[in-house]
Amino acid sequence: MEYHEKTPILDARKYKVGDVIYVTGEVVLARDEAHKKLLEEGAPIDLKGSVIYHCGPVVTKKNGEWKVVAAGPTTSIRMEIFEDQFIEKFHPAIIVGKGGMGEKTLKALKEHGAIYAAYTGGCGALAAERIKSVKEVHFLDELGIPEAVWVFNVEEFGPLVVTMDSHGNSYYDEVDSKAKKNLDTLLKNIK
Amino acid sequence: MIDEIVDAIRRAETQLSEDTVNALKKAYERETNEMARTQLKAIIDNFTVAKNESLPMCQDTGLQTFFIDMGYDFPYRAELKNAITEAVRRATKEVPLRPNAVHPFLHKNSGDNTGRFVPYIHWELREGDDVVIHVIPKGGGSENMSGLYMLPPGVGIKGIKKTVVEHIFRSGGKPCPPTIIGVGIGGGADLALTLAKKAAILRPVPSRHEEEFVAQLEEELYEMANKLGIGPMGLGGDTTVLDVHVEYAHRHPATLPLGIVTQCWANRKRKVHIDANGRVEVI
């Protein structure tokens, strides 16, 4: 299925592994330091039904206005240490990143009706094109550009491929077990 | 020459190398897995936007890296290092690039992509009076999926193949596949990795080694890698690698170093050629 959605998203349970989503509205950036900060101090904005994006962007300021130069995803597994607490505390709808996440996050997605979606790694220019403006930024002085909590206004932001849904399915487990089988066959036949 | 080096960095960062563009487009035509096709399509859309809007194709603009192939008699050799460092500072502001030079103990980012030993410059000398500067900014995600294996020589060619395929399997989606794999065999630990990096990035995609035996090994590794089914971004599919390049050196009887360097799909590279009269050309 292909979805074109507006934020906030309040019914993420309908998405299944393999679905493709394009988001219009707001995307909130949070990576390593931002997760820590928000968990410790609370969020300055309402994150219920939000789209959380694991990303450290390239941003410049021209004539007093922010311009997003490149904003592809970063590796999500680093956030595994606190994503379950983050989901429990703030109830986002979609976590976006690359490479997938682990068991703890999968469990939290199931409990709280959220999903994880992959954005194609390295696609910083494509992402920047769909980011129409910077709505606001939090903790910029403390955390610096790549780690700050940016809120971007986006249009048709995607393709976001659902790889972990709220029904306990992880597409990564499927690919991994197939690849492991393929590896075993290949190793047996090496000459 | 500083202007031209800045220009080469800009072109490397914003315009994906033509060989890689063609390889990705071919992969998209061939790919049968739907999930993989969405990923390849996004990559193609992305490098098209990057080129049209003159934006870096990836927000990780890499560690600024330069491989220099220099004639003994190149008259401006004393100026090269400073010119490259200055060009990196300027490119950081002008392209712009993400500041990617961090002090490993103090965690402080220098802010301009320069610092101790960076930009990283690798020098090689040969006959002649000109120079070719390979401008190859290298992303961190794929560099993390590099590896050095000091194999017992007894494992032979079979052991090499097994190690490479297992390495690609373990890397999974992490280095942003489809990747280009560079394999360096022999020499010492450092040489194996240097050969691997040169093989991965400096050689065209696709290309085969001039020696038949090595070319066959490349072909075999390429086919095995794509039978793993890891696919673009590790989401499954037929396209895990765009190519595998192997280079070798003679080895010590007691050692069999195997270096593997992984290059992500954002295979950023340009060349700056400077002749003995100071004429500069960006290729």
Commentary on this structure:
The complex is a heterodimer of chains A (191) and B (283). Chain A has 191 residues and is of the alpha/beta class. Chain A has a single domain (2-188), classed as fumarase (Alpha-Beta Barrel), CATH 3.20.130.10. Helices cover 31% and strands 32% of the residues of chain A. Chain A has six helices and nine strands, in the order ββαβββαβαβαβαβα. Chain A has helices spanning 32-41, 80-90, 103-112, 124-130, 140-143, 171-188; strands at residues 2-6, 20-29, 51-53, 58-62, 65-70, 94-97, 115-119, 131-138, 149-164. In chain A, helix 1 (32-41) packs across helix 2 (80-90) and helix 2 runs parallel beside helix 3. The longest helix of chain A has 18 residues, at 171-188. Chain A starts with a strand and ends with a helix. Chain B has two domains: 2-9 and 57-139 and 268-282; 141-263, no CATH class. Chain B is an alpha+beta fold and 283 residues long. In chain B, strand 8 and strand 9 form a beta hairpin. The mean pLDDT of chain B is 97. A five-stranded mixed beta sheet of chain B has the order 2-1-3-8-9, with helices on one face. Chain B has a four-stranded mixed beta sheet with strand order 4-7-5-6. Chain B is built from eight helices and nine strands.
List the helices and strands and how they pair.
The complex is a heterodimer of chains A (191) and B (283).
Chain A: E1 2-6, E2 20-29, H1 32-41, E3 51-53, E4 58-62, E5 65-70, H2 80-90, E6 94-97, H3 103-112, E7 115-119, H4 124-130, E8 131-138, H5 140-143, E9 149-164, H6 171-188
Helix pairs in contact in A: 1-2, 2-3
Chain B: H1 2-14, H2 18-30, H3 34-53, E1 65-71, H4 77-94, E2 120-126, E3 131-135, H5 140-143, E4 147-151, H6 156-171, E5 179-187, H7 189-202, H8 212-227, E6 241-251, E7 256-263, E8 270-274, E9 280-282
Parallel strand pairs in B: 1-2, 5-6
Antiparallel strand pairs in B: 1-3, 3-8, 4-7, 5-7, 8-9
Helix pairs in contact in B: 1-4, 2-3, 6-8
